[in-house]
């Protein structure tokens, strides 16, 4: 197998760098959400203590990116839309969430190709979560 083929066979989780870099991404995402006034609306949907949601998001992203299926092992199928139905998510909330994620992706070391892939995948998912 060529080096290029080996890279193509890797999951986004592996390309990102595994658990340590994923943890960095999740923590940076929530730190931005808590500190950027442009994300105040989406930040208000979360508890003041984000310890638990950080862990759940980390677990979810681990499996979503092709790594260990931590979320499914602990909580079952993610059912993203169902779990987010109690929250009014419109374009503004989607855009605030994406603002935080795009900034976190920009700050975490990864290849440009992976960053572009993740930006597109997160945007599709964030748009899918709209319920307003």
From TrEMBL:
GO terms for molecular function: heme binding; metal ion binding; oxygen binding; oxygen carrier activity. InterPro entries: GlbO/GLB3-like, Globin-like_sf, Globin/Proto, Hemoglobin_trunc. It comes from the Bacteria. Pfam families: Bac_globin. The keyword DNA damage does not apply. The keyword tRNA-binding does not apply. Keywords: Heme, Iron, Metal-binding, Transport. Belongs to the truncated hemoglobin family. Group II subfamily. PANTHER family: TWO-ON-TWO HEMOGLOBIN-3. This is Group II truncated hemoglobin. It comes from Deefgea piscis. The lineage of its organism: Bacteria, Pseudomonadati, Pseudomonadota, Betaproteobacteria, Neisseriales.
């Amino acid at each position: 197998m060529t080096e290029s083929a080996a890279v193509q066979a890797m999951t986004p989780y592996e390309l990102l760098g595994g658990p340590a870099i994923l943890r960095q991404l999740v923590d940076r995402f929530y730190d931005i959400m808590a500190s950027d006034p442009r994300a105040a609306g989406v930040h208000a949907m979360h508890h003041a203590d984000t310890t638990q949601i950080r862990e759940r998001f980390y677990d979810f992203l681990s499996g979503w990116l092709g790594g260990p299926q931590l979320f499914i092992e602990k909580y079952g199928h993610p059912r993203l839309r169902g779990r987010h139905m109690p929250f009014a998510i419109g374009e503004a909330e989607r855009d605030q969430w994406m603002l935080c994620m795009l900034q976190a992706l920009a700050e975490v070391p990864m290849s440009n190709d992976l960053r572009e892939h993740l930006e597109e995948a997160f945007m599709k998912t964030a748009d899918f979560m709209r319920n307003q």
